[in-house]
Amino acid sequence: MGTMEKLDEMSTSGAREYLTFRLDQEEYGIDILKVQEIRGYEPPTRVANAPNFIKGVVNLRGTIVPIVDMRLKFSCSKAEYNSFTVVIILNLKHRIVGIVVDSVSDVMELPPENLKAAPEIDSVIDSGSVLGLGSLGDRMLILLDIERLMAAPDMGLVAASE
Amino acid sequence: MAETHQDSGGGGGDFDLTQFYQIFFEEAGENLDQMEQMLLNLNLETADDEELNGIFRCAHSVKGGAATFGFTDVAELTHQMESLLDRLRRHELQPNAAMVDVLLESADASRSLLARHQAGGEGDGVPTADLVRRISDLAAGGSATPAPAPVQAKVSAPEQKVPVAVTPPKNKTTRSLEICIGPIERPEQADAVCELFRDIPGLGDIKALPSDRKDVRVFAVETASTDDDLLDLFAFHVSREHITIKNVDPVSLESSDPGYGFFEGAAGAPVAASYADDPQPGAPLAAFPGYGFFDGSPGAPVQIPAVVSSENGVLESKVASKVPAKTSPGTAAPQPEAATIRVAISKVDQLINLVGELVITQAMLAQNSRALDPAVYQQLLTGLADLDRNTRDLQESVMSIRMIPMSIVFSRFPRMLRDLAGKLGKKVDFVTQGEATELDKGLVEKITDPLTHLVRNSCDHGVEMPAERLAAGKSETGTITLSASHQGGSIVIEVRDDGRGMSREKILNKARERGLDVSDQMSDAEVWQLIFAPGFSTAAVVTDVSGRGVGMDVVKRNIAALNGTVEIDSAEGYGMKVSVRLPLTLAIMDGMSVGVGDEVYILPLSSVVESFQVKADAVSTVGQGSQLVKVRDEYMPVIELEKVFQIPRFDFEKSSDIMVVVEADGSRVVLLVDELLGQQQVVVKNLESNYRKVPNVSGATILGDGKVALILDTGALVRRSRH
Questions:
Q1: ipTM, 2 dp
Q2: A143 vs chain B: nearest CA distance in angstroms?
């Protein structure tokens, strides 16, 4: 799906709400409907042979949930774990995943006219996982297709054969 | 209900099967519903194999269960259905509308038969001979011979109807009835009976009459059917005890049935009286011979109190003239279904998770309150102690909802095997092992059918006739062993027999006959897998026990649906072993927690043989650094968990110096760990539902402090050491 089509699809469904979070200096937005809850960071149980950005698994009220540190995944300069570190629990199509971010900013509604297609850029993020860019005054929001990002094979969340 | 079942011939005797009746009735009901749905959706011209196989499997499952429980009438009818369906799916016959009709009717008839058994087997036998004849005509490729009275036979409950249809018209006098339905909570259900009259030609006419109560519907009916037939029909929509049939035209009835007057005096009057003032209206009827015609719960208060049999076999009923509104709603009959409820597994899971959370919260509170001064906070501490006890009780109760021992499944089989062996003229001993292995209820329900097929197969195909056994130098009596055990990350259920085993040759020949792609170079394991193909059977004769080849097909499918695998091991002349391996999601397991570095892992206690502290010189290396340790004259490979799981070590003072000997798949390895932390029961959680499969890990569990610990897959560790 081309970026323009994706934007079309978004704009036809009207303004959507996005949860925005910060990773280092960048601000990202994900569909609020994919977010189940936001929690503080607690040290997960390490899982052997996992990529470094998968911190391990935690117990979320009886469900075993993997925790992905987005700062390590997106190669941020530092990834500290302190009392302000936040985990966003995502409820995706087939699984529940937690992502670690620096901080959660707010929930905002983006009217379609503020959405811009993302230019082709060389980045650690697969361009297919970027829905577009949202502009809010002088802030730039990177809108992620979090479902696609988490299902990507290099995420290591799904077995290679799936 | 148990004592009535004893009389039904269905399952009394030396072994009490009644506890499984409910499960069977529910399963059979589901299967019949499913079959009906598939039949209705069946496109006659383009029916594909998948659909026909599906319908066939439904009939087969009902037959299997019915035979197990000794409901021979159901088994016989479904056997006939199966024969027809078998020819259809082999494309020996082209499905046509007449077949679908007769199959649907047979499904209905099976349902009525089952309902009769469920109600304790009271009442008349249900003649199915006509249906059986029609099915076999169709199966033989003949044209659809219509039933003597197809209109009548179409009625959903064809018992009693067939004789009515073929008896001379003197019994077919049309009667005028007034039928009261209510009081019921949803009177619109009663309106559905009007549709019955519309849908079933020849049943008669129905007209709604005004009713003085909202929850009661009154209808005027002109019909030739007997009251019992009407009740059977109506029972699809409203329960019987809410229906009252009043004859408004006694003259015509009396002329058609001279015995009627006598019965009216005998039964009608006391019944009517009992209605008004007896809190147990059923009681005075107990001694009345006609009582048994009720399919409803015996002993329960019945609101249509008298059914009378006259000499000519036609069933008539005398009806209380009291308006049912006078009956107290409190006397409603307790339904047998009330004993169990079927709840969505997800709801139970949610409950279990919530209770797990509660336990952890409680543990946290207990931990934090330890520092409090008991003198000052006495009440709080007492409350916390109560909370502790209550949460534990709660947790146990909730867990017990799902976990049941395998003995529940296993105890179904001795009776079935005894009957089966008797029928086949074989001698079979039945041995069970590991009955105490606990298994998730959801799994138990789904594993029962496949296991039934496997055990029947073993008895029918596996174990030879006594003479044959003697000739082969075996003891006269064959042995079928059913065992369950925890192995690695799975539960393994094995069905073994010491019979003739499978012939590689025969299977390959059969496979070629059926056009399957096979070659002589195939490994044994691959050849055995062939028997899982739909319709594959090497049995020479199709019996009602097995031989149609549907069994293994169903087994494989059902087990695959549980993420399980089936393995077959066989040696011709020596027997066969079928191992069903199921993941133990949510199974409770005894675990031993071990510490390595700062991490905790769980070992399945069933695979732990022993543990000991190791001396530095006990380990010797071989070749490229593989380590071996000598334990009582046996060299075993050493696996360092620290290396396998790349566990970071911060405290270099400590090192792994405890060895745990584990056994899996018949071989032993030694795991090197830092410390043994203790034994506990753990609930196995699936790691793959949100993550992927992790090598050497079979699952995860939640420890008392709320942390996740991984459960080691000892089987995988053992296999790893082999390479």
A1: 0.81
A2: 24
